[in-house]
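Exercise 7. Given the encoded structure of a 458-residue chain, write a plausible sequence.
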């Protein structure tokens, strides 16, 4: 029904292009002969079997993917709630100032918010989201990417580093390059869940006291995690090569052409318009710049946010999902449904940024709602030009970037507040112990300033 609407389709997920590839495959022709199909070979062979079973099998497959993704999001929210309990009272106190400022008692307001932002609500928000439903009705395989994004994070939250690395490898197989943003946060989350002790307080102050500026074990684990991702991805490429009887044409169509952004079909992103306008001699320079800049975000986010266990890696993973939605060469509207669903896992960050969050998210929804109108004016009635659609995609991406930035900034504010509360609690307890033993020494220690929350790295 919606398979021709570009806001829920892209060149690498479109059902129309998939049907053409399957037609070629069923007639003994390479599905990549016409430079139209960009689906990876293993996915093509899987969907070919479904098409032979029943015309409705493809739709049922996509519905089941959405249901499983919603269940995984619910499980992710459960894991995060357990991590919040492990963080103890400093994180809970840091995330409660806005609740305490309301007229109702703080306990009643907090319970009401927790009831709304329950794990089941997070899963249902994604499953029943109109953008997710529209993608499913359009028979787009976009939501298959979402499944493996969330699976990688949930596996890491369960301490299954191998499964998480395999999930990222499959994500790279169906969506080249941008899922690499998940490698560092998932490695950190898996390492924390597998090796960290619950009794250790993982704050920057503790790391500074213990002298653990860099965790060598985590560095080694991250390198091994990355190697597992590369190995699993290589296995998928080898299986694809065997399925295509040794033909290498799929590498060009399913991976290299996507990375080089050769297909400039309009979509909800901005890459297509930019590369239409850029001079050909600068084409690959800007392709490199657009792809390379995303690799600079994971390490700073880890240092400022993701390295603060037990809640930090979860926040970093959700931020990585948002960056994937923003920086993909061929995004769709359903990517924003996953981005907001991942943000809902950390409900206290939305409360912290509520002054701007609703306004910025409304800007995203406005831009997405105007995309069909701009497409109809430009491509349907031929009464406009490409700038009509580009303006709306620019609105979507600008407001989406601001929404994610405000959300991440809220996480950093809560992290600093948590550190200060934990530090002053330690000071109060130590002073209380020293007052009984030596009052003069306690007065000298009380006059020392508190350390900055950003002077050390965990």
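Solution.
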């Amino acid at each position: 029904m919606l398979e021709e609407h570009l806001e829920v389709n892209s060149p690498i997920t479109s059902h129309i292009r998939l049907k053409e590839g399957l037609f070629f495959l069923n007639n003994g022709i390479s599905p990549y002969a016409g430079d139209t199909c960009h689906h990876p070979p293993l996915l093509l062979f899987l969907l070919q079997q479904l098409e032979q079973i029943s015309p409705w099998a493809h739709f049922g497959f996509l519905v089941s993917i959405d249901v499983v993704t919603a269940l995984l999001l619910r499980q992710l929210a459960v894991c995060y709630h357990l991590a919040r309990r492990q963080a103890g009272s400093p994180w809970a106190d840091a995330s409660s100032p806005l609740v305490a400022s309301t007229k109702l008692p703080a306990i009643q307001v907090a319970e009401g918010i927790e009831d709304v932002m329950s794990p089941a609500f997070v899963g249902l928000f994604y499953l029943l989201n109109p953008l997710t439903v529209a993608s499913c009705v359009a028979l787009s395989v976009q939501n298959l990417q979402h499944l493996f994004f969330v699976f990688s994070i949930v596996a890491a939250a369960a301490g299954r580093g191998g499964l998480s690395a395999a999930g990222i490898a499959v994500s790279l197989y169906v969506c080249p390059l941008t899922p690499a943003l998940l490698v560092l946060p998932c490695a950190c989350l898996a390492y924390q869940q597998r090796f960290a002790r619950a009794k250790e307080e993982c704050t920057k102050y503790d790391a500074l006291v213990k002298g653990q500026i860099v965790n060598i074990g985590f560095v080694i684990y991250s390198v091994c995690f990355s190697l597992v991702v590369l190995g699993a991805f290589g296995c998928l490429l080898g299986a694809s090569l065997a399925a295509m009887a040794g033909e290498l044409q799929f590498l060009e169509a399913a991976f290299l052409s996507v990375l080089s952004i050769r297909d400039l079909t309009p979509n909800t992103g901005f890459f297509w318009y930019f590369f239409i306008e850029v001079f050909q001699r600068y084409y690959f320079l800007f392709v490199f710049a657009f792809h390379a800049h995303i690799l600079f975000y994971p390490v700073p986010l880890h240092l400022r946010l993701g390295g603060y266990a037990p809640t930090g890696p979860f926040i970093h993973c959700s931020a990585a999902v948002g960056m994937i939605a923003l920086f993909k060469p061929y995004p769709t509207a359903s990517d924003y449904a996953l981005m907001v669903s991942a943000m809902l896992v950390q409900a206290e960050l939305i409360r912290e940024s509520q002054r701007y969050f609703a306004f910025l998210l409304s800007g995203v929804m406005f831009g997405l709602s105007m995309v069909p109108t701009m497409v109809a004016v430009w491509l349907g009635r031929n009464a406009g030009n490409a700038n009509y659609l580009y303006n709306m995609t620019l609105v979507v991406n600008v407001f989406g970037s601001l929404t994610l930035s405000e959300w991440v900034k809220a996480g950093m504010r809560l992290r600093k507040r948590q550190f200060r509360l934990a530090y002053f609690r330690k000071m109060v307890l130590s002073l209380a112990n020293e007052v009984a033993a030596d009052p003069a020494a306690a007065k000298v220690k009380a006059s020392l300033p508190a350390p900055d929350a950003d002077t050390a790295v965990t």
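Remark. The mean pLDDT is 84. Students should compare their own answers with the one above.
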